[in-house]
Design goal:
Layout (H helix, E strand, L loop, with lengths): L2 E2 L10 E8 L6 E5 L3 E8 L2 E5 L2 E4 L6 E3 L5 E5 L6 E8 L1 H7 L6 E3 L4 H20 L4 H19 L1 E3 L5 H20 L6 H7 L4 H12 L3 H19 L4 H7 L5 H12 L3 H8 L1
Parallel strand pairs: 1-3
Antiparallel strand pairs: 2-9, 3-8, 4-7, 4-9, 5-6, 5-8, 10-11
Helix pairs in contact: 2-3, 5-6, 8-9
Length: 274
C-alpha cells in the first residue's frame, strides 16, 4: 500500500517549489503518490527515481516528469556526498482548469531543446521566488502558465489505461480527502464519514491510515489548523472566533491542538508573524 501525499501549495501560487538536498540514504523519499504533476531538475550528485516500476538515474536526465497519480520515490545513491536539485509540483486543480481532459492524458519525458526550455523556466521561477517576496508571485504565475504551455504543446499524449486497481484505490482516497476539505466546518467524525462512504468505521480508519499515513482525526485537525492560520495572519478576528469559525470544539481545544503542532500558542504565532 502506497501513501497518498496531499500537496500544500506555496501561498498565492498554483505550484509548490522544492529545494531538494540529500546527504545520506536516511533521507530517501518513500514511495507515495499525489494528483499534482511533479518535475525534478537534478543539479549535483545522483539519486535513483522510482516511477511506477521504472528506475531512472538522475545523471541520465536533465529534467524528469512524474505524472499525476504515479507511484514514485527517490533513493540516495551511495558513493556521493550530496544530492542537490529542484522540484516543482503543479497543482492538479490548476491543470484541470486549463485542460479539463487531463485525467485521460499524461506527459512523455522531454529531451533536447524541450528539456532545456523546461529547465530554464524552472530556474527562472526559483530565482524570482527567492529574490522577490513582494511581487514575485505575479511573475511566477505567468511562468507557470508558460511551463504548462510547453508541457501541453510538446509533451502531451493520451494515457494508456493500465493499473486500473491502483487508479480505483487512488480515486477513493482522493474522494475522502476532498470531502473532508470541503466539509471541515461541519461536525465531522469517523462515524459521519463512514456513513457517507457506506463503509464501516474500522475499515475507514484502517484504509485512511494505510493510504494517507495519518489518522482521520489528525487530518481533520490539520485542515482546520491550516484554515485557522489563514485567519490568524489575514484577519483581526479573536482567537475565540477563529476557533469556532473553523469548528474546533472550543478555544481551549484549538489552543491545545495548535500548540501540539506548532510548539506555540495561536496568539504567539500571530505576534511572531503578523
Amino acid at each position: 500500500m502506497y501513501v497518498y501525499e496531499k500537496i500544500k501549495l506555496d501561498e498565492h501560487l498554483p505550484i509548490k517549489i522544492l529545494d531538494l538536498y540529500y546527504e545520506s540514504s536516511e533521507e530517501n523519499v518513500e514511495k507515495h503518490w499525489h494528483n499534482s504533476i511533479e518535475i525534478l531538475v537534478p543539479i549535483l550528485g545522483k539519486v535513483e527515481i522510482w516511477d511506477n516500476g521504472h528506475m531512472i538515474r538522475s545523471q541520465n536526465v536533465d529534467v524528469y516528469i512524474i505524472n499525476s497519480k504515479n507511484i514514485h520515490g527517490i533513493s540516495f545513491v551511495s558513493g556521493y556526498e550530496v544530492y542537490k536539485g529542484y522540484g516543482i509540483q503543479i497543482n492538479y486543480d490548476y491543470i484541470k482548469s486549463i485542460f479539463p481532459l487531463i485525467d485521460h492524458y499524461e506527459f512523455v519525458q522531454p529531451d533536447g531543446e524541450v528539456s532545456r526550455e523546461i529547465v530554464r523556466t524552472i530556474y527562472r521561477i526559483v530565482d524570482i521566488y527567492d529574490d522577490d517576496k513582494e511581487y514575485g508571485h505575479i511573475a511566477i504565475k505567468g511562468l507557470t502558465d508558460i511551463l504548462m504551455y510547453i508541457l501541453l504543446k510538446k509533451l502531451l499524449v493520451r494515457k494508456k489505461y493500465v493499473l486500473q486497481e491502483n487508479e480505483i484505490n487512488n480515486n477513493k482516497i482522493v474522494k475522502i480527502v476532498n470531502y473532508i476539505d470541503q466539509h471541515y466546518k461541519e461536525n465531522l467524525s469517523i462515524q459521519v464519514l463512514a456513513d457517507h462512504f457506506y463503509v464501516s468505521q474500522s475499515y475507514l480508519s484502517r484504509y485512511f491510515k494505510q493510504n494517507f499515513g495519518t489518522t482521520i482525526k489528525k487530518y481533520i485537525d490539520s485542515v482546520r489548523l491550516e484554515k485557522a492560520i489563514n485567519d490568524i495572519l489575514h484577519t483581526n478576528l479573536s482567537m475565540t472566533d477563529i476557533a469556532y469559525n473553523n469548528s474546533f470544539a472550543n478555544p481551549k481545544s484549538f489552543n491545545r491542538i495548535f500548540k501540539r503542532i506548532y510548539k506555540m500558542t495561536p496568539h504567539e504565532y500571530r505576534k511572531l508573524l503578523k
